[in-house]
Amino acid sequence: MLIGSPEKPAAGLLPSTQESCRGPWVLFVTILGSSMAFIDGTVVNVALPALQSALHASVQDIQWVIESYALLLASLLLLGGSLGDLFGRRKVFAYGVLLFAAASVWCGLAPSIGSLIVARGLQGIGAALLVPGSLAIISASFSEKERGRAIGTWSGFTSITAAVGPVLGGWLVEKGSWRWVFFINIPLALTVGATLWRIPESRNESAKRSLDWPGAVLATCGLGAVTYALIGAPTGGFATWAWGLAGVGVLAGFLFVEAHSSAPMVSLKLFRSRDFSGANLLTLLLYASLNGILFFLPLDLVQVQGYSATQAGATLLPFILLVFLLSRWSGGLVARYGARLPLTVGPLVVACGFALFLRQGIGSSYWSTFFPPVLVLGVGMAISVAPLTTAVMESVPASEAGVASGVNNAVSRISGLLAIAVFGLVLSAGFNSSLNKSLPDLQLSPEVRQNTDRERGKLAGMQTSDSRIRRAVDEAFLYGYRNVLWISVGLAILSAVSARRISAKHAS
Predict the structure, then answer these.
(1) CA 210 to mean position of chain CA atoms
(2) Do residues 2 and 137 make contact, with C-beta atoms less than 8 angstroms apart?
């Protein structure tokens, strides 16, 4: 699935001579700028155990470290693309890089978990400006003949940065501090800023002058309220669920506004296409299962299995490399079999990968316990990604391709936003249920039991010197994590079933 919203080149496309001179600069800047957001999307998870310990944060707190970024990015992604069309793609991209860099400095210097969460939200706003702008700049700067190769180059290099990010981030956490994970963005931003003047400005002259601010506000508030309710459910009362109900109401209002807006952020008429709605339903289910697992896996590896941050960061490297190396091959499957078959087989393979994670225990070997499911996940997602992108792009007229790509991108991010909240609720419930059964057998003193109960919110991040409590905590985490894995298996299977909504047409 392509990140961003490729669209028709703007009027005044560069002549071929200028294109050949400035083309490398366009790719250099857009790859570096996009890499900031892509690295942040993978590297921060590796730092979660360390920052949880350093800032004495609960699991709910570190969920918000991820969710505040995802919420603002998902809600404002389409608006960010519209701003670039209207006011200039280079200008909006530059503002996105500047805001993202400033927020990264704030993240790295954050004195408390609350400050970090706010800074992460600002990072999400910056990413919403620069992510759609990167592909839009490429589309506007290259001729139709050269555009496909340019986008392929962009996609390849950003995939490499996504693969290197967790390993580099884990090494920085292990050798320095979790704060250095956020400082990675500073040299990238400075390099982008120093070369941005080489990029030609472009805009969509036919773009409507009005922006869907009501839609953006309603989407952000609605998703934020629902996420708050889901994350706060384990400790919250009626007021927490009231927030959730209010969020659902606001999202209903968002759909009403989009249906009656003259310039909607999300064109609901796109969903009249059976292929488009089917592809987005598959995206929602498949990426929910994947993103939820990827959030908790580093906590399992570091806090339960005893891996170093570098080892945890390297664990998913085979997964990312397989998706990168096999995507071209899986794209060829569409021409031969159509999108439906690989989008049925791929998610089923992903479900098998999740099921293989269920074999783990405490102190499990990487090569026998984690490496096989990571490989299976990589193959499954490699089979799925390119056909899913193709299904989305071919489900709508060419004039709507950019909007369709942006909507699908937003759906994938919203799925992760909601999955982390829901999976956290499930894992916490399982953790507390298991721990409640184990603690009475340990015959702890009232004081030790009180301290243990006070630390429950940290789950496997709980600090204790009692080996019996440590064992009970680790087993409780794995019990809750297995419940999450079973849900992911179910979601992946449902995503395969949803592929039946996609037509079976193919090129051969």
Answers:
(1) 29
(2) no
Phi-psi region for residue 448, left (φ > 0), alpha (ψ -120 to 50) or beta?
Answer: alpha
Examine residue 204 and state whether it is found in any structural domain, yes or no: no
**Are the beta carbons of 311 and 174 closer than 8 angstroms?**
no
Residues 155 and 250 in one domain: no
Distance CA 196, CA 206 (A): 25
CB 182 within 8 A of CB 107: yes
Say if 206 falls within a structural domain: no
Domain that holds residue 255: 212-262
Query: 3-class SS at 9?
Result: coil
Phi-psi region of 306 (alpha: psi -120 to 50; beta: other; left: phi over 0): left
pTM, entire model:
0.89
Q: Give the span between the Cα atoms of 494 and 344, in whole angstroms.
A: 10
pLDDT in tens, 65-100: 999 999 999 999 888 888 888 888 888 999 999 999
* Cα dihedral 328, 330, 334, 336 in deg (nearest 10): 100
> pLDDT tens digit string along 142-198?
776 777 677 767 777 777 777 788 888 899 999 989 999 999 889 888 888 877 887
Q: Directed axis angle between helix 401-442 and helix 213-232, to 10°?
A: 20
